[in-house]
Amino acid sequence: MSYEPIKFYQTGTFTIGNRLLAPEQRTGQADMGRTNSLNSGHRACQGCGEALGARYAIDAVMRATGNQMIACNATGCLEVFSTPYPETSWQIPWIHSLFGNAAAVATGVAAAMKVKGKKDVRVIAQGGDGGTTDIGFGCLSGMFERNDDVLYICYDNQAYMNTGVQRSSATPPAARTATTMPVGPEPGNAWGQGKNVPQIAMAHGIPYVATATVADLHDLEAKVKRAMEFRGARYIHIFVPCPLGWGAASHDTIRLARLAKETGLFPVYSAEYGEVVSVSKIRQKQPVEDYLRPQRRFAHLFGKNPNVEVIARFQEMADRNIRKFGLLDDNK
Amino acid sequence: MENKQIDKPFAITLDVGSSLANKTGSWRTFRPVYLQRIPPCNNQCPAGENIQGWLFHAESGNYREAWKTLTADNPMPGVMGRVCYHTCESACNRGQLDSAVGINSVERFLGDEALKQNWQFDKPVKESGKKVLVVGAGPSGLSAAYHLRRMGHQVTIQEAGPVAGGMMRFGIPKYRLPREVLDGEIQRIVNLGVDLKLNSKVKDIQETMKAGGYDAVFLAVGAHIGKRTDIPACEGSRILDAAAVLRSMEGEDKPMLGRRVAIYGGGNTAMDVARTAKRLGAEEVVVIYRRTRDKMPAHDFEVEEALQEGVLMKWLSTIKGMESGVITVEKVALEEDGALSPTGEFETLEADSLILALGQDVELSLLENVPGMEIKNGVVHVNQHMMTGAPGIFAGGDMVPSDRTVTVAIGHGKKAARHIDAWLNGGEYVKPAKHEVATFDKLNTWYYTDAPKTVRPMLDIIRRQSTFEEVQGGLDENNALFEARRCLSCGNCFECDNCYGVCPDNAVIKLGPGKKFEFNYDYCKGCGICVEECPCGAIKMVPEQI
Ligand SMILES: Cc1cc2nc3c(=O)[nH]c(=O)nc-3n(C[C@H](O)[C@H](O)[C@H](O)COP(=O)(O)OP(=O)(O)OC[C@H]3O[C@@H](n4cnc5c(N)ncnc54)[C@H](O)[C@@H]3O)c2cc1C
Ligand SMILES: Cc1ncc(C[n+]2csc(CCOP(=O)(O)OP(=O)(O)O)c2C)c(N)n1
Ligand code: SF4
Ligand code: SF4
Ligand SMILES: [Mg+2]
């Protein structure tokens, strides 16, 4: 765990706030005066996990830096739905350049700040999984390798959503996308390892790497705060369900994120200088079906003749994560 | 405007504006609305307590406010926390998660706290000038008097006995309800300005009403006459009735029951006399009951506690006769269809006394010649306004058809008070429309931390067999707070901030502590995440009228 959970009935620290907790024990999002970095009126779909994740994360950065921050945004839904000319939803200094170069732009901004002697102004880069794991990967790896003083946040919705749900290297196997149709002997996206950027980031030995989901805000905020305590390259990978691209109900966004973690399919942990330092344990272990079934991108695995082999492979994937990261409490 | 455009950089023609100009609320086909669903506990409580409401205050340690909310419906939490059969806990949603909230134990804590701190009820703000007579100072009469007085009416209680309390005093033994608690809670009602007349049995209701110039009356005389059964008994056989035995426990001379005591019946009263007999020193106490244990009307916990204290049970047995200290018992067989049939197998057992605990009848002589009064199966018929067939005469508690418990009696008192109040004002009390019930499926239980129920301490067994000390202990402050916080707040916002946090469109407005939340429909796209993630089911989606 990245924070000390409070066993304080009735909900402890599971909820966003809780009137029974002291204000400093609640999340920043419970605060009436929160920044709302990403303002209302943005054009994200109903129930967008990325819009939610971005507000959670950037508000937390604002708090950690005393509002002294600049964000560099890759092309993707987050950029397109927030800034259709001439409107913007961002209530922070914010710059957009291209799809693949957010890390490089951020490196440049950080260098500029250094030259101007503005040590207190911190730089963030953010983008989708496509912009991060595919086209922007070279710039990102360079930023890591040079240990540039940037926090890069990836909002992982597991495909190129902005251009109509094409697969990315973060798309899970078997998932239906516009470019991986559920046809042929191996319907949906091909089975492979994908590209696990948090692990690759750790391999760079950078000061801080973490994964998080929009289903555990206390954890997410604690990780952003921790990230801002370091100088140098840092990376946070946030799991953000996409109702449109996944064919899920708009109200299930947080539930699906929770299930991704509780099944073990998306391990939530943090690492410092390449070593895992915290793991969010599974609280109520769930079978992978519970996560897959509500999503139409996996509909071809169910129906009259469920594809039990593929479902079993997902379960193996989850179990491997559970073993690898020690996601289950020993006494469970 | 023209000039400004020229000043702009290449290809820029408009000022940067905020996305607030884009009212995304227009996308919506369903809208979330806050609502208050009725929690299953409240829905179940025979006294109509707002349980979730008072637990809410207890959760923050505001016991005074909790007590106030509780006593708005039920003036006797100390009594309730001891004798109520707490059906609320069987309905409690938390029961489906781990174990039900210990509602009853928190209620007792609040009742005891109020007595300790000497909290009193607020006096009525204005007097109505109407006079109401209450007949009987049992729980039903006391409850009606309390509510009527708070509504500003002048209330007189006429009680036949030398002290108030009814069956709470003359039925329920001390080891379950210490008399200081009962006395304290009755006194508090009297302090409101209720005129309590003891030793003044009402013999003819019409006459008493006329003589006192009463505008309305509430009858709550209970059921006190022990039911008899034809048991052939010879001279020298000591056959008593349970109600009378328990009643005499309140007097100077304790009943003489002997060394071996038999009790006939399987209800709660049978358990109470059996346990009382044990405490009076009987060596052998046997309960004789016609059916099997699971058919016993007594609550299981009472049977269990009696067994723990050494009371013996003889099931599937009827008493055929008693002759000079020997009871003849016939074994009966339980047929498949549930009917009982005699077996012709007899046995005898020695007993110094036999106590009949076969239920009680209502003494109705005061109602003779009242026009319109309808009496069926020995109880008085009332309509849905708790009014008898005689205008202005209302009735409740054990004397009307319903479950016979203190809680039901108190509930009747409240309900009758509302109808009497409306009747006195020439109107009719209209019950507010009931909200939908907050069933378990409306909750998102992920958010509640795992917290097993707190167990109340029990008096050790030796003292339970020999003294009348209270058997079940109470919770201390820490435990009570913990227990209150186990409440899931079913159907009612408890300000966890989830809706405020989880909205991707910042369309939930937080109004501040105690003021809850509001939707900003200009931007709410109707995704429904708030509804899904509200732990307690205090939000629902309703279709937009398009
Ligand atoms: C042994 C025993 C144990 C019980 N234990 C429990 C328990 O643990 N929990 C529970 O919920 N219920 C219990 N009950 C049931 C409960 O006590 C009754 O249902 C409840 O007291 C009924 O309330 P009431 O106000 O209708 O009548 P009562 O409590 O019977 O009060 C009626 C009052 O009216 C007075 N009265 C009668 N006639 C007249 C008259 N003509 N004029 C003036 N006054 C009159 C009586 O003296 C009495 O004080 C128990 C009952 C018994 C017998
Ligand atoms: C060089 C380049 N190629 C393609 C595009 C078109 N494009 C814009 S956003 C996008 C996909 C974004 O996917 P991702 O980074 O996962 O973000 P998401 O929209 O899913 O949040 C693509 C392919 C582009 N803008 N630039
Ligand atoms: S959890 Fe609380 S509100 Fe819900 S039924 Fe139980 S006591 Fe009532
Ligand atoms: S989510 Fe929490 S704060 Fe919002 S209505 Fe439900 S209980 Fe109240
Ligand atoms: Mg994406």
Automatic annotation (TrEMBL), chain A:
<keyword id="KW-0560">Oxidoreductase</keyword>
<dbReference type="GO" id="GO:0030976">
    <property type="term" value="F:thiamine pyrophosphate binding"/>
</dbReference>
<dbReference type="InterPro" id="IPR011766">
    <property type="entry name" value="TPP_enzyme_TPP-bd"/>
</dbReference>
<dbReference type="InterPro" id="IPR029061">
    <property type="entry name" value="THDP-binding"/>
</dbReference>
<dbReference type="GO" id="GO:0016491">
    <property type="term" value="F:oxidoreductase activity"/>
</dbReference>
<keyword id="KW-0670">Pyruvate</keyword>
<dbReference type="GO" id="GO:0044281">
    <property type="term" value="P:small molecule metabolic process"/>
</dbReference>
<protein>
    <submittedName>
        <fullName>Pyruvate ferredoxin oxidoreductase, beta subunit</fullName>
    </submittedName>
</protein>
<dbReference type="Pfam" id="PF02775">
    <property type="entry name" value="TPP_enzyme_C"/>
</dbReference>
<dbReference type="InterPro" id="IPR051479">
    <property type="entry name" value="PorB-like"/>
</dbReference>
<feature type="domain" description="Thiamine pyrophosphate enzyme TPP-binding">
    <location>
        <begin position="75"/>
        <end position="238"/>
    </location>
</feature>
TrEMBL record, chain B:
<feature type="domain" description="4Fe-4S ferredoxin-type">
    <location>
        <begin position="484"/>
        <end position="514"/>
    </location>
</feature>
<keyword id="KW-0670">Pyruvate</keyword>
<dbReference type="Pfam" id="PF07992">
    <property type="entry name" value="Pyr_redox_2"/>
</dbReference>
<protein>
    <submittedName>
        <fullName>2-oxoacid:acceptor oxidoreductase, delta subunit, pyruvate/2-ketoisovalerate family</fullName>
    </submittedName>
</protein>
<dbReference type="InterPro" id="IPR036188">
    <property type="entry name" value="FAD/NAD-bd_sf"/>
</dbReference>
<keyword id="KW-0411">Iron-sulfur</keyword>
<keyword id="KW-0479">Metal-binding</keyword>
<dbReference type="GO" id="GO:0051539">
    <property type="term" value="F:4 iron, 4 sulfur cluster binding"/>
</dbReference>
<feature type="domain" description="4Fe-4S ferredoxin-type">
    <location>
        <begin position="515"/>
        <end position="544"/>
    </location>
</feature>
<dbReference type="GO" id="GO:0046872">
    <property type="term" value="F:metal ion binding"/>
</dbReference>
<dbReference type="InterPro" id="IPR009051">
    <property type="entry name" value="Helical_ferredxn"/>
</dbReference>
<dbReference type="InterPro" id="IPR017896">
    <property type="entry name" value="4Fe4S_Fe-S-bd"/>
</dbReference>
<dbReference type="InterPro" id="IPR017900">
    <property type="entry name" value="4Fe4S_Fe_S_CS"/>
</dbReference>
<dbReference type="GO" id="GO:0016625">
    <property type="term" value="F:oxidoreductase activity, acting on the aldehyde or oxo group of donors, iron-sulfur protein as acceptor"/>
</dbReference>
<dbReference type="Pfam" id="PF14691">
    <property type="entry name" value="Fer4_20"/>
</dbReference>
<dbReference type="InterPro" id="IPR011898">
    <property type="entry name" value="PorD_KorD"/>
</dbReference>
<dbReference type="Pfam" id="PF00037">
    <property type="entry name" value="Fer4"/>
</dbReference>
<keyword id="KW-0408">Iron</keyword>
<dbReference type="InterPro" id="IPR028261">
    <property type="entry name" value="DPD_II"/>
</dbReference>
<dbReference type="InterPro" id="IPR023753">
    <property type="entry name" value="FAD/NAD-binding_dom"/>
</dbReference>
